[in-house]
Amino acid sequence: MKIAVAGASGLIGGALVPALRADGHEVVQLVRRTPRTAEEHRWDPQHRRIDPALLRDVNAVINLAGAPIRPRPWTRGYRHELVNSRLDATATISQALADAVAEDPSRPRVLLNASGIGYYGDTGPAEIREDAPPGSDFLAQLCVRWEAATAAAADAGVRVVLLRTGLVLGPDAMLIKVLGLVFRLGLGGRMGSGKQYWPWISLDDEIGAIRHLLTADVSGPVNLAAPAPVTNAEFTEVMGRVLSRPTPLPVPAFAVSTGLGEFGRASVIGGQRAVPARLLESGYVFADTDLDKTLRTALGKG
After folding, report:
1. Judging by DSSP bridges, how do beta strands 230-231 and 197-198 pair with one another?
2. Secondary structure of the chain as H, E, C letters
3. Which of residues 262 and 244 earns the better pLDDT score?
């Protein structure tokens, strides 16, 4: 296949592009800076501009573009950046794909568009599949708008898959870097009640699932999370064990909320017991279902 990838400089994109090329695909990268190689092509999502020829003959687009969600308070300016970077990139690609379909309707095309497991909001202990409704917090509503921005492509007949990704665990993942440092200092422990679920997925399975969904007969939302989500208390206990550090210091919910604002409330002391129902139904087989093993690999303790 000929595949265009946007957002290839991040954690997932950096691992995905070489994996796709190893599979034999031709990969072009959409970049906002000056291109450095023949495989890179400049676009301007901020102003919703892209050369129509870039997507005319592609079979698939994988859109991972968007400002990273960091563990920091969500100021008005940062919220604006999170929203616009996602909506502009997705709407630009979606319309370009719709235009390509209008020129050549015979070519099958697929758009794999990033989204987040935060779509559901804080759902407590209930098991969450892809048909669950969205939450009402900022992150949930951001995901709703992000997914809706693919409408032009879907309306044109492009198969659109919405990648609702959970906590990706890999050596360079921000979560691993931050929590790894905290736990190595002996300051780790459950956060809030510890009963909130943290839906995780290994970086290898994130890449494997995306490769699978390029050709699987699936459209619409897909939860990218390991089959057995764990609570925050379980997650932190395993991390402490992997790093040989005790976890005696629970972090009160009010401290998380005060220090990190809505990010802390939505992504740290809130959670989702999300399961990958549609991914499993489509035939995907997970490589990593054991949290202990996955964290050992991510933390360099394998």
Report:
1. antiparallel
2. CEEEEECCCCHHHHHHHHHHHHCCCEEEEEECCCCCCCCEEECEHHHCECCHHHHCCCCEEEECCCCCCCCCCCCHHHHHHHHHHHHHHHHHHHHHHHHHHHHCCCCCCEEEEEEEHHHHCCCCCCEECCCCCCCCCHHHHHHHHHHHCCHHHHHCCCEEEEEEECEEECCCCHHHHHHHHHHHCCCCCCECCCCCEECEEEHHHHHHHHHHHCCCCCCEEEEECCCCCEEHHHHHHHHHHHCCCCCCCCECHHHHHHHHHHHHHHHCCCCCEECCHHHHHCCCCCCCCCHHHHHHHHCCCC
3. 244
pTM of the model: 0.95
How many beta carbons lie within 10 A of that of residue 133, not counting itself?
Answer: 12
pLDDT at 170 over 90: yes
pLDDT of residue 70: 84
Question: Where residue 134 falls among pLDDT bands split at 50, 70, 90?
Answer: very high
Cβ proximity of 196 and 232 under 8 Å:
yes
- Span 153-165, mean pLDDT? 98
Higher pLDDT, 2 or 188: 2
